[in-house]
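ok, trying the design again with the full structure, not the truncated one.
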């Protein structure tokens, strides 16, 4: 039998995820599932890194407008020719620009690269 030890912080994260995701039942409407998923994500929200700005925008897609959010690190001393494109999980049913907002801001802040979600 193999014995595993889990770091206290990792165990706390797992316990918190179990607690906040306990209402992520698929027995509810899609709208309610989205609201519950966003609430779970919001529980872990972190403030933006210094210098990161994120205006909302719209791209024109083949089937209509697509809301996007652009992230720019105003403190970065580089003008990158590379950008991060972030496609949130949830099978494109759950999650939205707000549910993964802090993750995108952190990616932009840590790398100095512009990001689009």
């Amino acid at each position: 039998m193999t014995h595993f030890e889990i770091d206290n912080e990792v165990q706390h994260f797992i316990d918190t995820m179990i607690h906040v995701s306990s209402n992520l039942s698929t027995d509810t409407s899609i709208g309610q599932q989205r609201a519950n998923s966003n609430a779970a994500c919001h529980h872990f929200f972190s403030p933006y890194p210094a210098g990161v700005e994120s205006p909302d925008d719209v791209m024109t897609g083949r089937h209509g407008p697509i809301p996007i959010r652009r992230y720019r690190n105003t403190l970065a001393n580089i003008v990158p020719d590379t950008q991060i494109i972030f496609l949130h999980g949830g099978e494109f049913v759950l999650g939205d620009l707000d549910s993964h907002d802090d993750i995108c801001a952190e990616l932009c802040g840590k790398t100095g690269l512009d990001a689009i979600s």
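Keeping the full-length input from now on. The beta strands are 52-53, 56-61, 64-73, 83-85, 114-116.
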